[in-house]
Amino acid sequence: MEKDKMILGNDVGNTFMAVFLRFRDQFLISKKGFHLGLLLLLSAPTYADDLLERTNSNLDYLRQQVINQPEKGLIDIPASERVIGELSQVLDGYELELHDQILLRTVRALSLKNINMLRLNSLQKVDLAQAELAIADIDFVSKKSDSVDLLYAAGHISMHLLDYPVQAYQYWQQCAESGHAGCMNILAAHRFTGENGLAVDVEQSIYWHQQVYKTGTEYICAGVFSAIALGELAHFYSELDTGGNWTQWLEKRDLLLDDLINKGHDENICQLGVHYARDFVLQHRLSEDNIATLDLAIKLMAEDSEKQVLEVIKQDKELSTVIPYLSSIEYPEEQCSLTLSLLLYAKYDGQQKAVQDLTDYMTSLSMEYCAWEFALIERMQTSGRWH
Q: Using CA atoms, how far apart are residues 62 and 57, in angstroms rounded to an integer?
């Protein structure tokens, strides 16, 4: 149930921020960190000071312009590579304190990752040597320090830059076991969908969603989305033990949302319009139609085309007419979610033509964005509430 798909996921930027919050009071290398050799220090103290100042300046540049750059497309790749090259010279040419090695390797790894993710998303050629160097840096750091956030990044480097899913899931498994919400969420979703060749294990999917839910609002919406997933699994597959039924998981979701609002967040912080639409559809199946749920879904939808899709239901029109609106939805994840909701509503309402039309349309959507929905349908058709 991952959202932003600029290859990664919404919390990728938060991974970088978590790493640097950990280093924020020690982001500069101190003079004692350099062992430049007694002769050099005695004969050229100015050079040592200049090198130290230049290295700290390079660290700051990469932090601001590459790692924490809010607009990833604005990264100046040639300039950034020159700065990384200077850091590499320091790493290769001088004996550093372990803390400073960890800092430089962390910055280099995350910088190389961002640069090559930009290349990938811009349809440019990924520099595989740089991606492999980033992995080597992360492996070094992970052996010497607590680096759970870097393991999350290493999974994305392995999956998207090196096309090595087995290694990616090894990193994500490791950081999930250390309690990283992003890694737990990936395993929770992919153990159900079987993406990238990962073996389907529904019990593991439930387990990891439960672990994410237990984080509450610590990671803003992560717990909310896992409560939603567990509720859907409980509704569609009565044989699964998720720790509660659909209604109970909705109540748990709403308690987390109330907590977020009480902490000052906007009511639509988790962008749940499509999920309230699913709520309405499942209420319809149970003959518990609640127009207030549908109105809330319409209110929280970001796009006019999404609102128009739900107005078709509200106005009791033929559901086949929604397909042009579905096709114009900008975000493919929401397109997938709404399409499945409309397909289920058509089934529950006995609109056979709409069922066929929406089924045909659903099959035209990308597995990359619809993996959760396709997995729900496949399992429903064999062991769940499809009919």
A: 9
Reported as half-sphere exposure (CB side, CA atoms, 13 A), residue 281 has a value of: 26
Query: Using an 8 Å Cβ cutoff, are 186 and 172 in contact?
Result: yes
- Nearest-angstrom CA–CA distance, 215 and 324: 39
Domain count, the chain: 2
- Domain of 10 in residue numbering reads as 1-127
pLDDT digits (tens, 9 = 90+) for 199-245: 999 999 999 999 999 999 999 999 999 999 999 999 999 999 999 99
Predicted confidence at residue 48, as pLDDT, reads: 65
> Given CA atoms 193, 199, 200, 201 in this order, what sign does their dihedral have?
negative
338 three-state secondary structure: helix
25 in any annotated domain = yes
Q: Classify residue 27 as left (phi > 0), alpha (psi -120 to 50) or beta.
A: alpha
Q: Is residue 365 part of a domain?
A: yes
Structure tokens at 139: 């492996």
Pure H helices in the chain: 12-23, 38-43, 45-62, 77-93, 98-121, 128-144, 148-156, 165-177, 181-193, 202-213, 222-236, 246-262, 273-285, 291-300, 304-314, 323-327, 332-349, 352-363, 367-383
Residue that the structure tokens 């567990």 belong to: 230
pLDDT at 50: 81
C-alpha to C-alpha distance for 21 and 381, rounded to whole angstroms:
47
Q: pLDDT tens across 87-98, in order?
A: 999 999 888 889
From 59, 94, 127, give the residue that closes a domain.
127
Q: How many CB atoms lie within 10 A of CB 302?
A: 15
DSSP 137-202: HHHHHHHHS--HHHHHHHHHIIIIIS--HHHHHHHHHHHHHTT-HHHHHHHHHHHHH-GGGPPP-H
Task: Show which of 71, 92, 127 is a domain's final residue.
Answer: 127
